[in-house]
């Protein structure tokens, strides 16, 4: 019985050795790159599509759908950002092209996270929930810093809400405001 099992196993391994593995390794083409699709993939373009879907829902007055779209965009942005950072770190020192690509995609994901947060905060303000908007706006300021337009916009919203009082005039050349 042991000999029969050994023969079957070796026959299976031999048949796998002659199987066309290159088709498996190389994929069948663009259709296999499902995560690269702009509408339904897992990439910055798909996140932008979620933000656009939320914007369309707000324009149509469907705030529940808009909130879900912005929340989904926020969640996907955070996941993408984390994955891009992890991949960048894993390849640092091995192949400079991959960290450069991941860092670039990470910056896109960071910008989309800030945009989805700003949209979500505006939605909360529209629904008279300013206290719920505050942590989202603070997150934008932390992520983008007040020197970036999105960070400035978030801080200005915090001023408008009365959460902070001091206006941010921008960084002065000497670092003194």
Describe the structure.
By secondary structure, the chain is mostly helical. It has one domain: Serine Threonine Protein Phosphatase 5, Tetratricopeptide repeat (Alpha Horseshoe). 70% of the residues lie in helices and 0% in strands. It has 7 helices and no strands. It has helices at residues 2-17, 22-26, 44-59, 63-91, 97-126, 130-144, 149-161. It is flat, with a radius of gyration of 24 Å.
Write the layout of secondary structure elements.
Blueprint: H1 2-17, H2 22-26, H3 44-59, H4 63-91, H5 97-126, H6 130-144, H7 149-161
Helix pairs in contact: 3-4, 3-5, 4-5, 5-6, 5-7, 6-7
Number of discrete helical segments: 7
Radius of gyration over alpha carbons?
Answer: 24 Å
Span between N and C termini?
A: 86 Å
- The CATH topology label is Serine Threonine Protein Phosphatase 5, Tetratricopeptide repeat
Low-confidence stretches: 5-26, 173-177
**Judging from the principal axes of the Cα atoms, what is the shape?**
flat
Strand content: under 5%
User: Mind describing the biggest β-sheet?
Assistant: none
The helix/strand order is: HHHHHHH
Indicate the CATH class: Mainly Alpha
Fraction of residues in helices?
A: over 70%
Can you count the beta strands? 0
Total number of distinct structural domains: 1
pLDDT averaged residue by residue: 80
Structural class: mainly alpha
Provide the CATH architecture.
Alpha Horseshoe
